[in-house]
Amino acid sequence: MTEEIDVILLDAGGTLIDFRPPRAELFSKVLLENGLRIDASTTNKAMLKADGHFDKEFALLDGKDEAWLWEKYDAFVAD
After folding, report:
1. Is the bond preceding 21 in cis, omega lying within 30 degrees of 0?
2. Is this structure's pTM higher than 0.85?
3. Beta-bridge partners for 17
4. Which distant-in-sequence residues (6+ apart) come within 8 Å of 76 by Cβ?
5. SS3 of residue 60 by DSSP
6. pLDDT digits over 25-79, tens only?
7. CB-facing half-sphere around the CA of 47: CA atoms within 13 A
8. d(CA 26, CA 34)
9. How far is residue 65's CA from residue 38's CA, in Å, rounded to a whole number?
């Protein structure tokens, strides 16, 4: 019996592709540009916590209307 594959999904960010510079450094730089001085190590810890916190919501993203989630994510990390 032969089965057809309809879809293949790949988790690229942090799995197949690494950010250079690391995303925590980029995030810290943007925070500094907006008046918040938070080092990359602290930012990384907050981002890992945010990743877990928003995991279920990430799974529901449709690629069209994501701004609401990224605003919540950014606020969570900055807090």
Report:
1. yes
2. no
3. 13
4. 46, 49, 50, 53, 54
5. coil
6. 999 999 899 998 989 999 999 999 999 999 888 888 877 788 888 899 989 988 8
7. 17
8. 13
9. 28
